[in-house]
Amino acid sequence: MEQEQMAMLQKIGEARFTCVELGLYLDTHPEDAAAMADYTCYSDKLTGLISAYEESYGPLLNFGQCNMEAGSWVHSPWPWENV
Length: 83
Prior knowledge:
Layout: H1 3-28, H2 33-57
């Protein structure tokens, strides 16, 4: 896996982690406007990062977020394959 791809996956993981943590916080503090703004910002960032990754490297998941043809992820290189 190339360095740029690994860096993109790292950024996706960081944004996803932040969204999960903020979501948990908002479960108990639903009126916190600053936290909601942060959640919205990171959620938008995560969506953009995933779109950019999938445009460059193919589907990130085999369900849900990708607009590619169902099952097409099987034909792309697996993360452990040196391409």
